[in-house]
Design a protein that fits this description.
single chain; alpha/beta; three-stranded antiparallel beta sheet; 18 strands; binds S-adenosylmethionine
Length: about 400
């Protein structure tokens, strides 16, 4: 596969080789050539990959009560902000705005929608979709927002998996930082230099102090150095409120299990998946799971307090998915479009499928509370009421 000219030039200028993290940053976020930066990736059934909001409005309808609860709990007379970071096609933002206006009109009257999207190509499509948004809407960056921090809720749905990761490779006795090298017109992954002692020390809490016999030469995984700066910037933008991260995520012991010998990095394009991150750089989405332990540690280090975490399937059941499914079944045969009904039913079932979207993780954080203050309740962490399922 030929290497695009722009990448060849970058690699030549960098001496022929860069750390994997730099390569991933370019391939995804370069404003001219990156898959997101240039707005090349399309989300949806006819696009490159599907996310929960692309299945229809069911996901937003179930998430909205949780966001409304948190917004209502904020003790302020100011305008409230519902922030979506990494809004993709803008589907979730549009669906949430509709759900909020329909279900909580008084709250909606005090709420603005703020979209944080660093990639101009994606932001252009979001503007188009949100032309008739029923809430006031603006685009901003965490840096700009930090000048007048908001009171509100930040939703990060399938965005942190797009932060560029570092890849480490075992050489049998030590860890090396993987690099991408241009070699006779082709891209190649190389083990790179050994990690510095300070970087090795940071692996200790992940159970990776040394590769050991269980992680032989070639064993490879990802680290997430972009999380802490991202969480710090998000925290500075939000004076008061909560952050909900929804993403593919694994505990460190599962993420770095000896049997997971090639990490979690995947490439997606036109509904196809590949384990090769070097395919057509700038045309494929590249994504890596989050490590829950790394995320929670990075959040604590940047002033966030964990409120709780749950698998998506359980979170959505706590928010009334079973009742919604039951309601759909009740409405069949009452002049309702059968095709629409079946599509909504399928979407709900896909959202809780434990082998797919149901295994996503929801992690909620709030800006650190002062001593003695009790963190406000979160509906998605409660157990569903079995009597309400009908
Ligand atoms: C997989 S899409 C998620 C889209 C949407 N949240 C959804 O669920 O359909 C990732 C989005 O995050 C954006 N993005 C990538 N890096 C980002 C960052 N550092 N901060 C905010 N958004 C980012 C991408 O441009 C894209 O819009």
């Amino acid at each position: 596969m030929s290497v695009p000219l722009w990448l060849q030039q970058r690699l030549h200028a960098a001496g022929g080789s860069v750390p994997f993290r730099t390569y991933m940053e370019w391939a995804l976020h370069d404003p001219e050539h990156g898959a997101y930066g240039a707005g090349r990736l399309r989300i949806g059934r006819a696009g490159d990959f599907v996310t929960a909001p692309a299945l229809g409005p069911e996901f937003a309808a179930l998430l909205a009560p949780q966001l409304a609860q948190w917004l209502q709990q904020l003790d302020t007379a100011r305008t409230l902000s519902l922030v979506e970071t990494g809004p993709g096609e803008g589907q979730l933002a549009a669906q949430l705005a509709q759900a909020l206006v329909a279900g909580w009109p008084q709250l909606a009257a005090r709420t603005e929608l703020v979209l944080v999207e660093p990639n101009a190509g994606m932001a252009a499509r979001q503007r188009e979709r949100l032309q008739h948004c029923p809430l006031p809407v603006r685009w901003s960056s965490f840096r700009q927002l930090a000048d007048a921090p908001l009171a509100g809720v930040v939703v990060a749905h399938e965005v942190l998996d797009a932060l560029a990761v570092e890849r480490i490779v075992s050489d049998g006795s030590a860890w090396r930082r993987q690099r991408v090298t241009l070699d006779e017109g082709r891209l190649r992954l190389e083990p790179g230099d050994p990690l510095e002692p300070e970087a090795v020390a940071r692996l200790q809490p992940l159970g990776l102090a040394t590769p050991g016999a269980q992680r032989p030469a070639g064993w490879c995984s990802e680290l997430h150095p972009g999380l802490e700066p991202w969480l710090a910037a998000c925290g500075a933008a939000l004076g008061q409120g909560r952050l909900l991260v929804i993403d593919y995520a694994l505990e460190a012991w599962r993420y770095y299990a000896p049997s997971r010998c090639d990490g979690t990095l995947m490439a997606y394009r036109e509904q196809r998946a590949s384990g090769d991150p070097l395919l057509e750089p700038g045309a494929w989405d590249l994504t890596a799971h989050l490590c829950i332990d790394s995320l929670v540690a990075a959040a604590a280090a940047s002033g966030w307090q964990l409120l709780g975490q749950r698998r998506q399937g359980e979170a959505l059941l706590a928010l009334g998915l079973a009742q919604r499914l039951h309601g759909l079944q009740q409405s069949s045969g009452h002049g309702v479009d059968l095709a629409d009904l079946l599509a909504r039913r399928e979407a709900l079932l896909r959202l809780v499928d434990p082998t797919a979207l149901g295994d996503f993780r929801w992690l909620a954080f709030q800006r650190s509370t002062s001593e003695g203050e009790i963190p406000a309740a979160s509906q998605f962490l409660q157990d569903p009421d079995p009597t309400e399922a009908g």
